[in-house]
Amino acid sequence: MEHGVLQKADTANAGRQRKVLATVMGLGLLASAGLFGWIGAADLSGAMSFTGRVTGVLLVLVALAMLLAALAVCDYQGKRRLEYSGALGMFGYVLVFIANALMLIMQRQGGDFTLFLPVWIALLVWSVWALWKLYRQGAWNGLLHPQRFAAGVTVTAVLAAGNFAYTQMYMPYMSPMKIEFNTRLDKPVAHPSGNPIYLPLTISIRNDGASEIYVVGVLYWIWGIIQEYTPQPRTVMHWVNDLRKFSDQHLYRFADVRKSELLVTGINHVPPGRQLSPGTGMALEKIVMLPRDRRYDIVEAQAQLIFARKDKLGIDVPSQISYATSSTDSGRERPPSWVLKGWQKNAQFTKYSLHIRQPNKLLELTRAQKRITVWVMIGSRKEDPASPYVTIDWMIVTNGEESHEPSEAEKSRQIDQYGLTYIGATSSATSLATETTQHD
């Protein structure tokens, strides 16, 4: 009698343990199914690229498979009505392991800490524990061909990981970017009064690539160069002196560069955040007024464009960009020291920021919130304090990171991750001396 009571108690305890085990193992699968179903549904409807939406479809299917696996685990730990419920449960845990391992890879690739990092780690460890428990319980025993099942699971895992890597890591990096960015100076025209000269300038941007882009910043310069003809060829020592004075100028054998002056500069004639779809372009036409009596031998136009790829980030563009403008020697906000390097103390600056929106939910959960900060420096350089100069610089930052100067490796990683980079326009040149003489 006593033995029978103990046996019933042991059976009841074992039943309760199996229920607790089934609950724990099932809740993990349900949590994973809910998480990845939520991510997949968000990307299915809101990802900024086609590949992101394809990944959303796959994640929804993975979430459904995890949900079915949770039901199979409950059956296996209970009455075992289904012959292969244990194997189906193991397949679900393999999916959980792969999905969270890939999320950890993306987290590591971004280099950021987010609140979801402990979630990926916890679900990864839990899936290993659940697989081990089912293996100890002999979940394979109901299969007629366990090796084929294992091979199928392996192939499925490899295909899922391969598709994920292709759509999230390969495609955004390999789709070509081709941006045509040009400046053109047309024929100068003298004013009827005889003094000023009107010089037409055109700056054009065209997106011939496969991805839409955001314009982050545009800066252009027009330089006036005064030269003197020298019948005797100039030597290498002359060139060395030229490089010391004009580090970015050409070297001439039969001309001595007397002076290079900044005549005109323009900042953000294209509003920051402006989008350009593939196959579209835009152009700025401007008339620049210059003094005729200067007789510049060469007038050269240069420009610089900062842009970002829309398949790698989104930009929340406010209705009006907020510019912070001040002197670097005032008591108000100052640029970081690495931006001020080489500038005179009384230099002025303009700063604006654009908040980054990740192109899909996967990246939103594995990357910290960031913004693009742009500084436009206006003033004189220490090596040439008598001449005005203007430059533009940028970095992607989180709060409190602006003081850190990005290394070349960090800049390269930002270009890879966000598609944010800058290019120079093809320069255009003309001669005021020859063109205006013809009108005299």
Chart the SSEs and their pairings:
Blueprint: H1 2-46, H2 50-77, H3 85-110, H4 117-136, H5 146-174, E1 179-185, E2 189-190, E3 196-207, E4 213-229, H6 236-245, E5 255-267, E6 274-276, E7 281-291, E8 298-309, E9 314-316, E10 324-327, H7 337-340, E11 348-357, H8 361-366, E12 371-381, E13 384-397, H9 408-418, E14 421-424, E15 428-430, H10 432-437
Helix pairs in contact: 1-2, 2-3, 2-5, 3-4, 3-5
The share of residues in helices is 40-55%
pLDDT averaged over residues? 78
Query: Low-confidence parts lasting 5 or more residues at pLDDT below 50?
Result: none
Structural classification: alpha+beta
- Radius of gyration, taken over Cα atoms and rounded to an integer in Å: 32 Å
Number of strands: 15
Calculate the terminal CA-CA distance, rounded to whole Å. Answer: 127 Å
Tags for this entry?
six-stranded antiparallel sheet, alpha+beta, elongated, about 40% helix, single chain, five-stranded antiparallel sheet, about 450 residues, 10 helices, 15 strands
Describe the structure.
With 440 residues, this protein is of the alpha+beta class. It folds into two domains: 2-174; 179-437, no CATH class. 42% of the residues lie in helices and 29% in strands. It has ten helices and 15 strands. The chain has helices spanning 2-46, 50-77, 85-110, 117-136, 146-174, 236-245, 337-340, 361-366, 408-418, 432-437; strands spanning 179-185, 189-190, 196-207, 213-229, 255-267, 274-276, 281-291, 298-309, 314-316, 324-327, 348-357, 371-381, 384-397, 421-424, 428-430. Strands 4, 5, 6, 8, 14 and 15 form a six-stranded antiparallel β-sheet that branches. Strands 9, 10, 11, 12 and 13 form a five-stranded antiparallel β-sheet that branches. Strands 1, 2, 3 and 7 form a four-stranded antiparallel β-sheet that branches. Strand 12 (371-381) and strand 13 form a beta hairpin. The chain is elongated. The mean pLDDT is 78.
